[in-house]
Amino acid sequence: MKNIIGWALAAFGVIGFGVEIDNLRQNKAENTVTGFILSAVFILGGLALVRSARRAKLPPELRDAPGVRPALNERDIERAVLGCAKEHGGRVTIAEVAAGSQLSFTEAKEVLEGLSRAGACTVDVTENGAFIYEFSGLMPRASAPEALKS
Fold first, then answer.
1. pTM of the predicted model over 0.90
2. 65-69 contacts: CB < 8 A, separation 24 or more?
3. Are 97 and 113 in contact (CB under 8 A)?
4. What SS3 class is residue 82?
5. b/e sequence 17-37, b meaning 16+ C-beta within 10 Å
6. CB–CB of 12/46 below 8 Å?
């Protein structure tokens, strides 16, 4: 019910905002500032109700920490990074890891730098300055006849 009322209030605010813009166009701007303020209050109040209704559906441990996603343990993070590297043939950039996992760009960078320090991968820098992290254990292997030729 909260969700429906919230969307109705937000819609009412948007309509009020449109009416005030129309009043400005027609030079009937007597209480325009008040109208804009009331419209904004209706929009923000409605969206707050919608957010509240959505948060009520979350489990209690997520409800208590607004804006915080569930913490991943170190093992899950490394697995996500290694899975992304495997999908990309053993060579990944920070952006590819961030796009292919739940990690932010900064988190992906920290994890890849940590894996590099631990010796799990090497880092190459391209001509344009991009860091490419190479996991030799995840790169495609050459077949036995090809390996003997080289």
1. no
2. 69/102
3. no
4. helix
5. beebeeeeeeeeeeeeeebee
6. yes
